[in-house]
Amino acid sequence: MNQALTIAGAELRLMLRSRLALVGIATLLLLSAIAAVTSATQMAAAAKMRAEAQAATDAQFKAQPDRHPHRMVHYGTYALRPVGPLAAFDPGVDAFTGTLLFLEGHRQNSATFGAARESSDLVRFGQLTPAFVLQTLAPLLLVFLGFASIAREREHGSLRALAAYGAGAWSILGGKALALGVAAVLAMAPAFAALAWAAVQQPGEAGIAALTALSYSGYLLVWVLVITAVSALAASAQGALVTLIAAWAIVVVLVPRAAAAWVGVAEPLPSRVDTEFAIAADLRRIGDSHNPNDPHFSAFKAKLLKRYGVTRVEDLPFNYRGVLAQEGERLTSQLFKDYAARAAAIQNAQTDTLTALGIISPALAVRRASMTGAATDLGTHLAFLAAAEAYRYDMVQKLNGLQASAVASADDAARSKDPIADRRTRISADFWKTIPDFDFSAPSPAERAGAMVMPLAVLGLWVALAIGLFAFARRRLERAGL
User: Can you tell me where the transmembrane regions are (predicted)?
Assistant: First the structure.
């Protein structure tokens, strides 16, 4: 152990004397610090803007004057997805999924205002965030710092000199890996500081922040071990550099993008246009509440008349139009829910496949763990859509219920021709104030921790494989006569 520490100290001193190494470390630290500050600032501004916009739209809905309830159904309101608890560290899918939903009767709208659709194509390559720095840039820096750590010693003939002083293969490899690990810790410091600050701001997130830090520590540990092992196995420093840059390009850049494209082809998600056409066709099949001769709603009316022992809807003890609207909304909402469930099942299957493909790229595994921990993953977005749809349905049915109970049937039938009847159908604005505000909370830390188990297990497998390669490199050095 003392020999390994001595070798690590010598390697670190060599790094400090190298201008290239110093510039690389300083640049990464600067980028990481800039990413932490800008991401935190942007997410704080986004959180404030969304909270204010949600409060404003809720207040605007409640401030509407006396109206017919069905006009309020079409007036609608908005639901905004709150910023994830640790989104300043990893914004995840936030830029691509949209954050705003318009909630109205008879329709289920798509989320809009995704930053990637509103910005240049550079956003799609990767935002400068602490997570992006650790996932993409930190491994590349480690490659340039460590590719020659042992290959250089071999080329200079100093490996045998180290062996002559009693240093074994384990001490040499361990010392070089330890020095590179110190550089990795430095690379992680600003990003982890940002993560710690987010956890301090929200103490309930401390456990998740620790798991996220663990995932990135494991990810960079893989790179440290692999870089050191490749440097030991390569015939020359140049060969080690070419091999490691190729590995970085494949593992960090090529595989994640190719895997995402392949998953989209293997498990395709229907387009919004195709889904809209399919829903329209199903709506015609299940029934149209606006068509008095529709079979489903004719049977629905006959059932109500029989239950209350009357022959005309005008004799029912409630406004039939409101009850009819409730039944129509029930059918259409169930249809929307079914289609949303199918789309969510496909998207979840795609995400699970990408997690499994983490076996060929640890970048996929750490990305999944990071987004899940930050509550900026697809699962959180789908939970938001489900919560917004549940709120929309409840709001619309409450308004339809007001039409059934608070609007006289005769006035409702005559309001398009009789201004006085029309005024009587406008119920008090106080009713709008009884509609609760939309509220969405991200999955709890315990739920997110459970969802992180699989990607963390994949990262654990990569650590084991890296240790195996490290042990193989040690045996090769020993056989070489150290």
Answer: 132-151, 177-200, 206-234, 241-265, 452-473
pLDDT in tens, 264-290: 888 888 877 788 788 878 877 877 666
d(CA 257, CA 213): 24
As to burial, measured by CB atoms within 10 angstroms (0-12 exposed, 13-18 middle, 19+ buried), residue 272 is exposed
Rounded to a whole number, what is the largest CA-CA distance in the chain?
107
Q: Print the domain residue range for 259.
A: 2-479
Q: How far apart are CA 147 and CA 226, in angstroms?
A: 10
**What's the pLDDT at 459?**
95
Burial class (CB in 10 A: 0-12, 13-18, 19+), 266: exposed
Q: Which pTM was predicted? A: 0.86
Helix residue spans in 357-452 (DSSP H) = 362-374, 378-406, 409-414, 419-424, 445-451
* CB < 8 Å & 24+ apart, contacts of 418-425: 422/68, 425/68
Q: Which residues of the chain are modeled with pLDDT < 50?
A: 115-125
Q: How many domains does the chain have?
A: 1
